Amino acid sequence: MTWHYDDLPPEEQTYLDQRFTAHGLDPELAYDYLIPDVVKAQGPDAIEAFMRQKDISHIYPQSDYPELADQLNNVFLEDPDLNAARGDRLATPDEVWAAHQDNLADAWELFG
Q1: 20-50: per-residue pLDDT in tens?
Q2: What pLDDT is recorded for position 1?
Q3: How many Å apart are CA 56 and CA 96, to the nearest integer?
Q4: What is the CA radius of gyration of the chain?
Q5: Rounded Cα–Cα distance for residues 3 and 110 (Å)
Q6: Cβ(62)–Cβ(90) under 8 Å?
Q7: How far, in whole angstroms, is CA 74 from its chain's centroid?
Q8: How far apart are CA 68 and CA 58, in angstroms?
Q9: In this structure, which long-range contacts are made by residues 83-89, counting pairs with CB atoms below 8 Å and at least 24 apart in sequence?
Q10: pTM for the complete prediction?
């Protein structure tokens, strides 16, 4: 069973709301779009554990492109050290792809 956003307990919804709305994102859309299904299938605790180890990164940095900061197609989940190392540089397509692959690998490693 894959957990839908509305099925999550209030504590997990509150946590995700805080994370996603801090970037101006709609929490339910961001949940649907960003979190891998393999994580959602593991339940609320796994979803929160996964998100606690990921940054919400921007392809076009917020500092230079504030008008894109809340655009779902401008964000992706990434390990915090990689996000910090990139700083305010644009994320390349290869970096976004690598982050997606890493998210799947992390999900399978943690919950698969």
Answers
A1: 999 999 999 999 999 999 999 999 999 999 9
A2: 77
A3: 12
A4: 14
A5: 17
A6: no
A7: 11
A8: 9
A9: 83/55, 83/57, 84/55, 86/57, 87/61, 88/61, 88/63, 88/64, 89/61
A10: 0.93
